[in-house]
Amino acid sequence: MMGQITKKERQFTMITVTDLSLNYSGTPLFSHVDLQFDRGNCYGIIGANGAGKSTFLKILSGELDSTSGEVSILPNIRMSVLKQDQNAYDAYNVMDTVIMGNPRLYEVGKQKDALYAKEEMTDEDGMLACQLEEEFAELDGWEAESNASRILQGLGVGTEYHESGMAALDPRLKVKVLLAQALFGSPDLLMMDEPTNNLDIDAVNWLEDFLLDFEGTVIVVSHDRHFLNTVCTHIVDIDYNKIKMYVGNYDFWYESSQLVQQLVKNQNKRNEEKIKELQDFISRFSANKSKSKQATARRKLLDKLTVQEMPASSRRYPFVGFTPDREVGKDILFVTDVSKTIDGVKVLDKVSFIVGHDEKIAFVGDNENAHTALFKILAGELEPDEGTVKWGQTASFSYFPKDNTPYFEDCEDDLVQWLRQFSKDPQEQYLRGFLGRMLFSGEEVHKPVKVLSGGEKVRCMLSRMMLSGANVLMLDQPTNHLDLESIAALNKGLEAVKCNVLVASHDHQLIQTVCNRVFDFTPEGKLIDSKTTYDEYLARQREQGAL
User: Fold this and answer.
1) Is the Cβ–Cβ distance between 400 and 465 less than 8 Å?
2) How far apart are CA 78 and CA 39, in angstroms?
3) 333, CA 20 to 30 Å: which among 7, 88, 188, 369?
4) Residues 6+ away with beta carbon under 8 Å from 74
């Protein structure tokens, strides 16, 4: 039986990374990494797509070996890793799957049940049963099912599913069960790769609250900035083959690295002024009133932070900026009683609204089919079954579709040629400059568009929108496939633009900071229209018991 971790041991560093390197085919993914992960902190791992975030997490968990160096984990601790294979537990029911999050507890429980199922027990069986009962109690076995049930219900898996077989569950519920498994039994060390993927907003909020009061160490990879900002005490940045750790959440890392870059460029500024500006910035971010364990820990760490420890990232950010050719007039968009049935399912039911001046509208909720159908109808790509759509005479729109495949499939053009068809200026120099702002430089601009990655295609589609000069922007899930830097750039661009925006997104921070009106759709296709911010809308929904 493994010894219990002592109070003294709990105060130590959980993981020590020493001179770690990983090479692929002789090329270093990262090298000479030295880090410490301490108990009670939450570490968010960030980096560009392909930088090695998930790979680094797998090395920390022991799933992958490094090329050189060492990962040392404090002995006698329990580590829990969020599983990615949704079908791995199809032979078990939901409750057993969650309790398997503590393998030893599950094993002891099954051993105990097998002994008591015997028709006759020997003296040896009796002694073993006593030992197992003692260990079962130490592992909090008698509360296991109630604890598992509490986590499942918090994530939105109702009691009616707790004895169901995993094989019969909807994939979205399976995701939640595997997350419950990772959280079960108060592990000392918790590792998660994209835990908010496919979670509804209520489940994400519950998870944030859970982690804010979690006493162990959390290491998480995520593209969800709101999540990282809420729970993280540190950011682990994978950048140009280096991995460095910084105090603070994502916004602190992002804004401070931008500020440091700016101050470095401005060499004329006196050093004392630079230090004062950076110190003021630290003070502003450390003024966190939250009482949660993680928020308190983060505030204490920021209070101790020196200017020299602030991030000076060399990360490149794309530029996303929209400039309308003309201001939109009084009449913008009128939608009256629009209905649409697709494949026998009514996705829109008598939807009516008027878009007013300076309105930026967020499409939220789980009914993504309604979002996409409405966007396609507004763009003229789909006819409504009934109802009308009327655009104002001065309104011009640009549409970012959820599926951009038709724009790139079987296309032999390189990046310059592809972009030229959307530009009023055909000159290669102009197009190269434009592509450079979207991080396509040098010979990259001659890459065939059909071989671009998902994120690169999205950046191309955003470039197309920027060249349009439109005064109404319609975007259906634009953050899909983007890295954090590109999402932050898009967020900034949509905040700054002086025109109407209609955007469907699961990015909490983007729609909260950009939008002043919220569209949600019931499963039956009815529109819920709220002239408010996203956070205000969520608060109202909770008050009404809708969330």
Assistant:
1) yes
2) 12
3) 369
4) 5, 9, 12, 13, 14, 15, 188
Q: How far is CA 241 from CA 29, 32, 469, 498, in A?
A: 6, 9, 38, 39
* Residue 322 domain flag: no
Domain containing residue 346: CATH number:
3.40.50.300
Q: Which amino acid is at 381?
A: E
Look at residue 237 in the predicted model and tell me its pLDDT: 94
- Compute, in degrees rounded to 10, the torsion defined by CA atoms 332, 336, 341, 346: 110
In angstroms, the CA 489 to CA 469 distance is 18
Say what the alpha-carbon torsion angle 536, 542, 546, 547 is, to the nearest 10 degrees. 100
Q: Following CA atoms 325, 330, 331, 333 in sequence, which dihedral angle do they give, to the nearest 10 degrees?
A: 70
Mean of pLDDT values over 345-356: 97
Residues 492 and 528 in one domain: yes
Given a cut of 60, is residue 381 above it in pLDDT?
yes
If asked whether residues 300 and 231 sit together in one domain, one would say yes
Helices 271-286/293-304 angle, 10° precision: 170
Beta-carbon contacts of residue 70 (< 8 Å; ≥ 6 apart)? 16, 17, 18, 19, 20
Lowest mean pLDDT among 126-130, 275-279, 353-357, 409-413: 275-279
Task: Please tell me the distance from the alpha carbon of residue 124 to that of residue 137, in angstroms, as a whole number.
Answer: 20
CB contact at 8 A, 295 and 252: no
Q: How far is CA 314 from CA 237, 258, 260, in A?
A: 11, 10, 10
Q: Could you give the CA distance from residue 122 to residue 425 in angstroms, rounded to a whole number? A: 89
